Amino acid sequence: MFSFLVIAGTGTLPVAASENDPLTISVSQDLVWEDNLFRVADGARPEIEGSRRPRDDRLSVTTLAAQLGRTYSRQRLTADFALTRSDYLEFDHLDFTAHNFGAAWQWILGNQWSGTISARQDERLRSFSDRIGTVRSINTFRQYRADARYLMHPQWSFGAGWARMDSRFDDRESAGSEYIEDAVEALVQYRSLAGSTLALVGRDAEGRYPERNETLTTVTGYTQRDLLLRADWGVTGHSRVSGQVGYTARQYPHAGDKDFNGLTGRVTFDWNPTGKLALGMTARREMGAREDVADNFVITRAVSVDPVWQIGNKLRLRGRLEWLKRDYGGDPFGIVAPDRDDRTQARALALEWSPARNLSLQLGARNERRSSSDAYPGYRAASLFMSAKLAF
Questions:
Q1: Cα(285)–Cα(247) distance, rounded to whole angstroms?
Q2: CA–CA separation, 391 vs 380, rounded Å?
Q3: What b/e sequence results for 300-318 when a residue is b if at least 16 CB atoms lie within 10 Å of its CB, and e otherwise?
Q4: Is 129 strand, coil or helix?
Q5: Is the dihedral of CA 194, 103, 145, 99 positive or negative?
Q6: Which one, out of 43, 163, 187, 303, has a CA that is 20 to 30 A from the CA of 133?
Q7: Which pLDDT score is estimated for 21?
Q8: Per-position DSSP letters for 264-330, written without gaps between them
Q9: E strand or H helix at 4, and its extent?
Q10: Which domain of life is it from (predicted)?
Q11: Residue 311 and residue 277: Cα distance in Å, rounded?
């Protein structure tokens, strides 16, 4: 749960593809030590049922995963499934089994029509970095997508799509943050002769909070409109820019002071100066970035740097530096102080070794520190992890 996701960066080196394998099965085992599991302030200890407990814990994460990909004529079908069991040594009330899966159909009709239909479910433990307490909260996030594109010229196409996001929790304390969002978008895309793409996208979304009772003053939904420029552009033979940037306008009925209007986006620059070195740099300003928080009204500003050094054919060193700021001023429920913003610095380093083609081992560490402008406590936390993954 912690190891691979923490260190996975945008700066990557070429690896052998497995697209020709119709079925891939993998088993992985992670061992993690957290010195401040519940992200409590320095000197504090978590309290459960009136008893003060240790700050640290050890975690075992076992994953069984499968991936399937097949091409029938010009139609591409893919599916994946992962069953992940997390067991805590001290705080076993957090134990849970995650069921993560997805499927997609990349379709082609004639020489001009193409598109994708997909569905995905992800389950995970809600991070204690954005909430107070020790109660287990499992978030189930489901996403459904469908889109179609028409190629009107070898370099120009236009299309439309629909998406639904559904975020739910298994604890009542988090029910107010559950949401369902339906969105439609239209785009015009240009593709260069070298394969780079640039698209102008218009997006219209309506969201609702199904667990909040509707009254004249309660916020039970929102509307959001985005105008975005998306790019996946090769700058040189060794560098690439990808992501999107644009303008977002979100309105909350009965809570105009919580409305948001401003620049949003996520842009990544990947640079591979040599066959052994790679660097990824990402800047983003997003509303409800899921990898940061479970609440979709939080505005996140972040910059991250992800270097990779291919030491040898079987040995690789990854790093990550991230500076992150969360702004809770858009809280439509009035639960969080309107002037609260958090600042987090995180550093991670991992050594990866692949002694065999289908076996990879990883050893690493992570450190983070947060300060807050509100009475909400800051914290310091560190973790160590090791993992092994076998694919066949």
A1: 11
A2: 35
A3: bbbebbbbbbbeeeeebeb
A4: helix
A5: negative
A6: 303
A7: 59
A8: EEEEEEEE-SSSSEEEEEEEEEEES-TTT-S-TT-EEEEEEEEEEEE-SSSEEEEEEEEEEEEE-TT
A9: helix 3-7
A10: Bacteria
A11: 9
- 128-137: buried (b, 16+ CB within 10 Å) or exposed (e) per residue? bbbbeebeeb
Report residue 339: phi and psi, to 5°: -95, 10
DSSP class of 94: G
Residues 253-284 pLDDT 10s: 878 788 899 999 999 999 999 989 999 999 99
Q: For residue 16, is pLDDT > 60?
A: no
Measured distance between the N- and C-terminal CA atoms of the chain, rounded to whole angstroms: 21
- Give DSSP secondary structure letters for 52-77: E--S-EEEEEEEEEEEEEEEETTEEE
Q: What angle do CA 225, 229, 232 make, to 5 degrees?
A: 135
Residue 78, CA atoms < 13 Å, CB-side half-sphere? 17
CA separation (Å) from 293 to 102, 158, 299, 325?
Answer: 22, 33, 10, 12
Residue 245 contacts residue 217 (beta carbons within 8 Å): no
Instruction: Write out the DSSP string of 358-380.
Output: TEEEEEEEEEEEEEESSSS--EE
Interior angle at CA 361, CA 355 and CA 366, nearest 5: 145
Rounded CA gap, 95 and 26, in Å?
A: 22
In terms of Cα–Cα distance, which of 351, 344, 341 is closest to 367?
344
The amino acid sitting at 310 is Q
Predicted TM-score (pTM) of this structure:
0.89
| CB-CB contact of 103 with 78 (8 Å) | yes
What is the reported pLDDT for 136? 95
Give the CB-side neighbour count of residue 128, counting CA atoms within 13 A: 20
Q: What's the fold here for domain 3-391?
A: Porin (2.40.160)
